[in-house]
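Re: that backbone. Tokens:
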């Protein structure tokens, strides 16, 4: 969106404000200025996978699950639905005089940090470990949320800028040290792409980056302006207070406020900017600094329609959790689930299971929490895994046993350890097949302060399930009854059943209709088609320290070990084959055939491999495209390739274009081997 016209209106308005009035607009709880017709406005709102924390709203699958769909069009549709619900709620909230927190239109989503380490609890909020996938899905989210009208439908915010991915326990004091190459190649890439796509906001991270706090970082602000950023910059919540309380780069709150404002932070989520007038009196800032940021903020508010009618004023409240949005949520959950293992037991067809006994076991089975993940709204009717299975297999006998608590040794108060374990074994022995539902929820991985997980501040200490669940998996699999593991998490996990279960389905946090979606996959009504947006490691033993921000031996691009399940992996109930591939400038044409006996969808993934000392160790994703094929059908798929296909970055962080020979590798999610196409360069590389 061209903001120049709105900026002129903002400049005219701010010129009429006193400096006190202008300063009052620079906190997330912006005050009303009645004499100028400026209503109160709360900037703090969340919409990671649905309108969050503002009452009832459609809960879509968590962001990491949406990444597993490898479908930017789907993400764009979901973001559009979120914006419709957000506008519908906002229209009514305003009429009720409610302009409080979580009720506005400036959403602090998406999270485009790179999920570099599987221990990070907030990795579930991201689109995974690959910069290109993150950027493509992030851009789709921004465009869908902000709309294409004369005004913003809502405003997206790319966070957390920059080089942020744990540890959560240290985030208020931590100094992330990253090389110029890693920053340009990995950590900053998605932010640049979202800024160039017109994202309205950017949020700074809590941590320092190479010594400077991210919410007052000259280099980062220089990058934003270099990329053409015209929106507003906000601190993370109470991050500016960290300057003097934890980072110790300033001595007082006025000094912290001045440092942030002078270095481009327009909005304070927190209370330190209440000291701006003190900083002004002390000569730490100038009045022009306050007015500059106020203009940026008012520009966004005018672009949202402040003071005039918009094309979104008539969006009805019936958009909230509409039938269409609930169908979209289920569809997204279906496309997101990743089949990690299958010896042929799946699908469990309804016809074959009629009259048989299915044991549904595990603490995730009847849990609504595993549907949600963090930063969520509230669904009016959540379909748990157990409920979905009960409905899908209505003609089968369903036995249910919780089996264990999510993380405690005993499920009931004052009970003996493993108090539900024997019931699980009994049910497994009585059944023809077991569906074992285990995993994590947002109390076990998430943000510091929200996930009371064994003192890890939201992060994971390792990749294994809590011990009580590990014992449950072992006991159930020891019965010898055929077993399918359905696992919930927002990250790489190890259940102990990888070598013994007949099938494993990664459900992520699948949203309010997740149980229905997973049941439709289990019974074969839907073909699984999700692909891993992160590497599933065997353990953390050969990974670098969590605090090490070097990309060496991290993510699929540089990992030196053998993963449990690789990035991009995901099985299907059918089979696909590649028949031919042709490289054209900007795209790859590849013929895909469904050689199996079922209709299915897959994701054609294109990776580059360049023989150059500055290239990544294991190749890099440069294109992807979903394709649906009937039995025996062939399609020639045109896969757009990244404009940065031949971009390399030197050790100083300077990008350059490689011009030698390279290889394009095509992967179809684990069912087929790499298909490699050699491409001649225009001339020999330097």
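Recovered sequence:
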């Amino acid at each position: 969106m061209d903001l120049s016209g709105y900026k002129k209106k903002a400049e005219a308005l701010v010129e009429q404000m006193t400096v006190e009035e202008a300063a009052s607009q620079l906190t997330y709880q912006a005050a009303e200025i009645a004499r100028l017709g400026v209503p109160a406005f709360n900037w703090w709102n969340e919409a990671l996978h649905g309108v969050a924390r503002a009452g009832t709203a459609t809960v879509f699958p968590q962001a990491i699950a949406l990444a597993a769909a490898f479908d930017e069009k789907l993400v764009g549709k979901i973001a559009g639905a979120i914006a419709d619900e957000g506008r519908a709620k906002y229209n009514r909230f305003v009429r009720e005089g409610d302009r409080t927190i979580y009720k506005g239109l400036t959403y602090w989503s998406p999270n485009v940090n790179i999920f570099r380490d599987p221990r990070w609890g907030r990795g579930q909020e991201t689109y995974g470990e690959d910069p290109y996938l993150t950027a493509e899905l992030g851009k789709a989210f921004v465009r869908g949320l902000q709309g294409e009208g004369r005004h913003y439908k809502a405003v997206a915010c790319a966070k957390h800028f920059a080089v942020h991915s744990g540890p959560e326990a240290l985030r208020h004091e931590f100094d992330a040290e990253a090389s110029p190459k890693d920053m340009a190649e990995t950590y900053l890439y998605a932010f640049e792409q979202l800024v160039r796509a017109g994202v309205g906001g950017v949020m700074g991270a809590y941590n320092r980056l190479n010594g400077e706090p991210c919410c007052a970082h000259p280099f980062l602000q220089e990058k934003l302006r270099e990329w053409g950023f015209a929106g507003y910059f906000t601190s993370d919540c109470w991050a500016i207070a960290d300057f003097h309380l934890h980072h110790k780069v300033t001595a007082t709150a006025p000094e912290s406020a001045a440092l942030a404002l002078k270095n481009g932070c327009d909005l304070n989520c927190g209370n330190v900017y209440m000291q701006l007038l003190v900083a002004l009196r002390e000569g730490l800032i100038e009045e022009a600094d306050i007015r500059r940021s106020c203009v940026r903020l008012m520009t966004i508010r005018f672009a949202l329609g402040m003071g005039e009618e918009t094309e979104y004023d008539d969006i009805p409240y019936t958009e909230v959790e509409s039938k269409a949005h609930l169908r979209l949520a289920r569809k997204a959950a279906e496309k997101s689930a990743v089949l990690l293992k299958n010896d042929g037991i799946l699908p469990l067809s309804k016809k074959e299971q009629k009259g048989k006994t299915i044991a549904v076991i595990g603490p995730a089975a009847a849990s609504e929490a595993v549907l949600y993940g963090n930063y969520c709204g509230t669904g009016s009717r959540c379909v748990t895994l157990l409920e979905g299975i009960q409905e899908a297999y209505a003609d089968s006998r369903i036995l249910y046993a919780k089996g264990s608590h999510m993380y405690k040794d005993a499920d009931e108060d004052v009970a003996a350890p493993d108090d539900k374990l024997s019931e699980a074994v009994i049910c497994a022995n009585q059944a023809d097949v077991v569906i074992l539902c285990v995993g994590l929820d947002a109390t076990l991985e998430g943000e510091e302060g929200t996930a009371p997980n064994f003192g890890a501040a939201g992060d994971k200490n390792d990749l294994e399930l809590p011990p009580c669940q590990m014992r449950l998996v072992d006991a159930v699999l020891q019965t010898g009854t055929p077993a399918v593991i359905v696992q919930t998490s927002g990250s790489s996990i190890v259940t102990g059943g990888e070598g013994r279960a007949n099938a494993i389905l990664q459900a992520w946090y699948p949203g309010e209709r997740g149980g229905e979606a997973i049941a439709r996959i289990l019974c074969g009504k839907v073909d699984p088609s999700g692909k891993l947006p992160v590497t599933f490691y065997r353990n953390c033993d050969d990974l670098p320290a969590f605090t090490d921000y070097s990309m060496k031996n991290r993510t699929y691009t540089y990992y030196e070990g053998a993963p449990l399940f690789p990035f991009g992996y995901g099985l299907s109930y059918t089979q696909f084959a590649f028949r031919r591939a042709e490289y054209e400038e900007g795209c790859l044409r590849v013929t895909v055939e469904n050689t199996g006996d079922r209709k299915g969808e897959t994701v054609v993934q294109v990776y580059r491999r360049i023989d150059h000392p500055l290239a990544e160790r294991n190749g890099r994703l440069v294109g992807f495209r979903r394709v649906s094929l009937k039995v025996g059908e062939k399609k020639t798929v045109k896969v757009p390739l990244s404009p940065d296909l031949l971009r390399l970055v030197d050790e100083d962080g300077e990008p350059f274009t490689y011009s030698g020979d390279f290889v394009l590798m095509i992967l179809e999610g684990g069912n087929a081997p790499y298909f490699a196409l050699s491409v001649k360069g225009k001339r020999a590389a330097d």
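The longest strand covers residues 600-609. The chain has a mean pLDDT of 96.
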